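To close the section, here is one more complete example, presented without commentary so you can practise reading it yourself. The ligand is glutamic acid.
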Amino acid sequence: MPPVVRFAPSPTGLLHIGNARTALLNALYARREKGTFILRLDDTDRARSEEKYADTIREDLAWLGIPPDREERQSARTALYEATLEKLLKAGRVYACYETEEELEFRRRRQLAVHKPPVYDRAALKLTDADRAKLEGEGRKPYYRFKLEQKKVAWSDLVRGACEIDTAALSDPVIRRADGHWLYTLTSVVDDADMHVTHVIRGEDHLTNTAAQIEMFEALGAKPPAFVHHNLLTLPSGEGMSKRLGHLSLRSLREEGQEPLAVASAAVLVGSADAIEPVSGLDALASKIDFSKISHGAAKFDPKDLDALTARTLHGMPYEIAKPRLAALGVAADASFWEAVRGNLSRFREAEDWWRIVFGAIEPPLAESEREFARKAAEHLPPAPWSATSWDKKNWDSWIEALKGATGRKGRELFHPLRIALTGRENGPELRALLPLIGRERAVKRLKGEKV
Ligand code: GLU
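Output:
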């Protein structure tokens, strides 16, 4: 059966690279196994969820190359949650409670003071109908908890192996607050069951929820999915990443010009046995995913590694991949241009600068003392006609040899003024590759100090 997976962020902030890890593990697993990748917006917290964040999540996924096959949002599914609540209330698996936050906090403190675990004492289970009517008469609104079976729940996690949690050690999870807003513990299970999710791939911060959620699947008469709890990414300092604090947001990496494939490789491979090497594409990255090899400890992510990975991704990028992106920058370049410049790029957008340098007008800042040399270089250029298409690779060598002979220069003394005259830049792609693109006529003019 092809897998069905979901990435379920709440649209309450910008996705960071740690969230990208979860999204990619889901999407690439589905891609490799020909399954379905659902984006599920967990937006039941109406106060904190914002449409602008939902938009950015979609943009981020598209940028990473993993647009979802389907999108769902929890705010559109509350009727199903209501019906489930009714069903579970009738079955005695959900109960209404009336404590305020302050009362609960007070009880927790009292438990801690006598060295007891701060587990909810189920006081609300002892309420009679009359007690409930009285509390509601006083204006209290119920909140709801799921009644755990207080048993050992075991599952075989695809990352962590055999797991077991005793739900007797847990508080009955709150599933809906008194203000009517749903907490995701139950809604997530309702959706996973309803959408036939086969694998729940998420961060290990959800491990303890899993036991309660397995009980919920059972209470709904649904088979629990496979669980895949991957390790979390931290900053180099060891600090956890936070959506709220805006750590390493995908949007900022996108705006910085990092390559999406580099970000994806880093997000997936960090902390694994595989070196973080540029990959040729998402299929290649998907083939490296092996849940059983994901480490159990947190993985440090150093943003500094991304610059090098982005550069290396560009250096190996085939023209067919670059072509539409060049076109989007207004650069109608052919393969010879791309192949001439890609090895020098640290960001994709720099290709546009080189396009302007090669085909636009530049005014080379050549020192007065170099004018004579540059004029000589123009005189020794291989005879016309030649252009990018008729350029013979030997032309470069014969030009440089002739120039060495005529001027006695070599090394930097020879190449630096040529570079300045031809490109106006101190550094850049190999002149040998740029010269035929610039073309003979314009090269002569540039060497003579004309602005072309
Ligand atoms: N909205 C939850 C979160 O972002 C989803 C957890 C899950 O994947 O089950 O933490």
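Once you have examined the tokens, check your reading against these statements. The chain is about 45% helix and 10% strand. The CA atoms of residues 129 and 180 lie 21 Å apart.
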